[in-house]
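Need tokens for this chain, all 229 residues.
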Amino acid sequence: MKLYPLSRTVLAIRNNAALFLNGLTSNSPDHPRNAFVNIHGRIVATFDQYRLSDDEFVIAVERAFVESLLVHLEKYIRLSGVHVEKLDRYVYFDLEETNAPVPAGTLVISQKRGRLLIAEALMPAQVSDEEFTLFRLQNNIPLQGVDYADEFLLNLNDEELVSYTKGCFLGQEPLSKVRNRSKPTWKLVVRYQDQCSEEERQKMTSVVIDPAARRARGFVFIPSARQME
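Here are the structure tokens for all 229 residues:
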């Protein structure tokens, strides 16, 4: 395993959690990645999820967005009767494509590449910040709080975060309208710095030197019309 520690808070959602999440998140409860959005389709928090049962889910949220998420969910929690609890867990990204065994009690969530581990105890992490950033750029894995914050969800250019067939959810109407009638104005993409305007270069995030190309690259929001350049 090649592990990188993530700054995630782990929450347990109990008492009919599947129904609760289905009505408030953009993706289906049986997918690994999901998002809470507001009524306008803007991101409150993106997260990874593990289904223990219909009654209990475990989700991993970027630490900086946990409190704002709990404020967003407060009234829905009261109305639904679900219980949300912070767990003392550790979250790692395993960069390797492997089925290597993990410690007992560790939850494994599949990713585009690699896997996310939610562990009960500390694990040895060998991956540097630069190595993980390059891995994310190579596999189009932006992080909330680093590469985006509260943008309109479809601006992330990530269809893995949205289901258009699961039924109604908070924020569904603006997301469906943009998808069916037009397109998002902006898209978050990976670009080399020398492909960008000076203004775009100033706004790039997660910038590192790609050793194969010997060029700097990073994430940047660009107009959708330029996506195919």
